[in-house]
Hints:
Layout: H1 14-33, E1 37-38, E2 44-46, H2 47-53, H3 59-63, E3 66-69, E4 75-78, H4 83-92, E5 102-111, E6 123-132, H5 137-154, E7 160-165, H6 172-183, H7 192-200, H8 214-218, H9 229-244, E8 250-251, E9 263-270, E10 279-285, H10 289-292, E11 300-306, H11 307-316, E12 329-333, H12 336-351, E13 356-358, H13 365-375, E14 379-383, H14 385-390, E15 392-397, E16 403-407, H15 411-425
Parallel strand pairs: 1-5, 7-8, 12-13, 12-14
Antiparallel strand pairs: 2-4, 3-4, 5-6, 6-11, 7-9, 9-10, 10-11, 14-15, 15-16
Residues 81, 112, 114, 119-121, 124, 126, 277, 279-282, 304, 306, 308-309 line the site of adenosine-5'-triphosphate.
Amino acid sequence: MKLCLPKGTKDILPDQIHLWQKAERVFAEVCEQYGFSEIRIPTFEHTDVFERGVGNATDVVRKEMYTFEDKGGRSITLRPEGTAGVVRSFIENGMGSLPSPVKLFYNITAFRYEKMQKGRYREFHQFGVEAFGSSGPEIDAEIISLLCTFFERVGIAQTRLCINSIGCPACRPTYHVALKDYFADKVSDMCEDCKARYDINPQRMIDCKEERCKPFVANAPRQIEYLCSDCRTHLSGLEKCLSSLDIKYKIDPSIVRGLDYYTRTVFEFVSDHVGTQGTICGGGRYDRLVETMGGPSVPGIGFAMGVERFLMEAASQGVSLAERVPVNLCLVHMSESAYDQVFRLAHRLRRAGIACEVDLMGRSFRAQMKYANKLGIPYMMVIGDDEIASGMAKIKRMIDGIEVEVRLDDLPEQASIFMNESTKEN
Ligand code: ATP
Ligand code: MG
């Protein structure tokens, strides 16, 4: 049988990897400028971390988790997202006693058993942040502005930013009553999931993606009309911060992250280029999550961005993240004795930080030249017995044939001076 990838996974091949590396580097850089520190959490956790941290009523937990029993009989789950694991780590490591807010970022793979679609995989990547300890709207604005800075730094135009408030335990019960009233005579015509959501958490019905449910959902009451005065103040505080930072946003009452411990601010960056749902990034405030998972009563807020969807957006905006460090210099040898010398020169060049290539295939002189051409290596240096005898050799810039003669003893320094200067001229 031919071996192949499992459905929903992919290889990221060398011709794509520089896109990922650049996105990862810029994301880390921007997070650090905003005072976030990186955290690395395990790929798998005890299943109850996600059952409690993501919530039993969510599609992620009900249908999408990769859960298995390990050889010790424990129920283990591959992380479907980052927040629950970060919160588990926050509690387990007593981070509640660190100066607040505690600001963390991560770059992870996540696993969800989902139907494959454009922008939807079973193994995918997320960049995310979580900030603990601050309950004001300023930190909500700060993490949104972090995202805007990230988009700007990689050179893509900000996609639509939609924000909403999903209330708090004080105002939500009244809203749930209004929702139940509204759906009471409709739920029997809705999908099986919505029938279950009606009893567990009717707010999640707002998020239903089924065609048959959409017309019912379209006219349903919205949480934003039922906010208590504290939630309204928080939302207008966030709006004020975003406006003063010149960040464009729209209030979209249909955004729901219907978990009991999600509170107030929710937001999404949405695009038309990344598949059916179009969400590149989703975030929200979870003031009760840490407590629900057994920690202190500490508010939190975070987001997760789908890296695949972000890269799709960058590509569709025609933004090149290309930044590959090319191999700069090819050392071509003309004889057996020169080969030995070339090998040592390459070692010296690389130790000095200069990227170079030597023949590793036993190629003839002509074949080495052809290989260097094919790779588009911009500088070439030919070493034969004459060069070894004189201790001098020429570095040639392939694009126009300009050459400079260098002493082999001073090779790393002289090569880098010539290549840097002539690259600048170009
Ligand atoms: P969706 O509505 O698209 O299913 P979600 O609400 O399940 O998204 P979150 O849990 O908020 O997604 O995850 C944050 C981000 O991770 C999403 O906005 C998206 O960019 C990305 N993401 C989620 N699921 C997948 C997946 N299966 N494949 C690729 N990216 C994903
Ligand atoms: Mg999903």
